[in-house]
Amino acid sequence: MNVRDIVINGVLAAIYVALTVINPIGTGAIQFRISEMLCVIPFFNRKYIAGMILGVGIANIFSSLGLIDVVVGVTISVIAYSLSYFIKNVWVNALQYSVLAGLFVGLALYLVLGLPYWFSAATVGLSTLITTFIGTLIFKKIGHRILPE
User: Are 125 and 99 contacting, i.e. CB atoms less than 8 angstroms apart?
Assistant: First the structure.
C-alpha cells in the first residue's frame, strides 16, 4: 500500500465517521445509516478494506452501545470483507453484508437493550440492504471516476 492508498483509506474512514455521527437515526433498532453506502467500496477494490473497518470502528464508539457496538461493527466488516474474497458479485456482497448487520446488530440490541431480536434484526438488515444497494448502484456507475484503481 502506497501513501496515496493510505490517505484515501483515511479519508474514507473520516467520511464514514462524519456521516454516521451527524445522522440522528444512525443507531438503534430503527436506523438508517447513510454512511453504509460507503461500506460497499471494498467489494469493488479490496485495498479500501482498512479504511472502512477503521471508519466503522471509530464511528461506533459514539453509539449508545459504546464498545460493544465497536466490536460488533468491526466483526461484521471483517466477516463480510473476508467472504467477499470468495464472492465476486458486488450485489451478493452487499446482501451478505446487510444480513450480517441485521443478525449481529439485532443480537447486540437484544442483549444490551432488551429490544426484540427478530424485529431489530429485520429493521437493521432491511435499512442496511437499502443503503448498501444504493451505494452499490452509485459505485457501479461512478466509482471508477472517484476511486483510483
Answer: yes
